[in-house]
Amino acid sequence: MKMNKLSFVIAILILEALLGCAQQTQVQPIIPSPPSVEVTQPPQPSTEIPITAILKETKPKIAFVRDLGGDLGWDIFTADADGSNIVNITNSPSQDLWPTWSPDGTQIAFEGIYVMDADGGNRTFLGGGVYPAWSPNGTKIAFSSLGDLFTMNTDGTSKSPILPILRRQWDTYSQVCPSWFPDSKRVAYASNGMGYWEIFEVTVNNNLNIGILGADTSNSKKYPIHISGGGLRFPTDNIAYHNLFPVLSVSPDGGTIAFDYYNPVAFKRDIYLFDIETEKVKCLTCEASTNCYFPTWSPDGLKIAFTMETSKDSMGHVGTDIYVMDTDGGNPTLLIKNGMFPSWQR
Q: Which end of the chain is more exposed for a tag (fewer CB within 10 A), N or C?
């Protein structure tokens, strides 16, 4: 009996020893640490406004010409799109006419031909000519010289004829008032080569050889423009109005040409639109009681600025103001008193 009790105690001691050893040798599970992950923050919108956006105006300016009277001549001015902040940028006794903006809005070319900064500074003479028109891509200036059309680089180099030069008598077969299409490859212009004014389109080719009347003009086409009312063909052959050439302005989308025309039936000059695709002509100012001319498109193609004769003094001097209207002729609004030759900044 004693022996059995002793055996039981020994068994208990052995069991405890075994359990203690098991506790000492038990393997603890290893929990791996999470891998290191580099967290990239999504890009945040920049709150810094580029300096170019700060400097660029939200609305384009308008350049125009004002008659200062007497010996002061005609100067070129600029104004904000609403007609405010008018500034004389030429201040010259010469006749400064026909301003046209560079596409980036930093320079203005004008009749002469000259180029200057938008504030009138750094005036540079490029060469003789009239009716300058700056190409939309900014590389060329088209102009008329002695009745022929030319282009040149904006520094006055590489003067080239657009069409073969015509041999003519004075004031005959004139090619005037070029206006670029938005592709900078085509120009619309007016010509009285048949003794009356017509409107043409020409693909600019500066590799032309100087030719004579009758040379290849396959890069030019005539628009079939007709004026409704009285069966008059545009433009009429009337020697009294031989020098009243149409002033042209191609729309920003290239689909429409605005032009002015003296209608001898109405005894006044009006502004018309010619739709190139439909070949339809619409008068925009025929309801006006006075002459309207020199149309120019706003850069967005939604407005047309133009010159309207509004007064006449005791000496017969005609006063002109600049108006803006919708492209259907609606909402004509006075923009600038005493001005003409408006040109929108692009």
A: N
Domains and CATH numbers, the chain: 103-344 (2.120.10.30)
Round to whole Å and give the CA distance between 325 and 330: 6
Chain centroid offset of residue 284 CA:
22
What is the reported pLDDT for 45? Answer: 35
Range 201-224 average pLDDT = 64
Q: What is the pLDDT of residues 38-65, one digit of tens each?
A: 433 333 333 333 323 333 445 789 999 9
- Those residues whose C-beta lies under 8 Å from the C-beta of residue 268, and which sit 6 or more positions away, are 262, 288, 290, 291, 292
Residue 116 clears pLDDT 90, i.e. is over it = yes
Strand order of the sheet with strand 100-101? 100-101, 107-110, 112-117, 124-134, 140-145, 148-153, 160-161
- Note the pTM of the prediction, 2 decimals: 0.76
| Per-residue pLDDT at 342 exceeds 70 | yes
Residues 184 and 299: their CA atoms lie apart, in Å, by 15
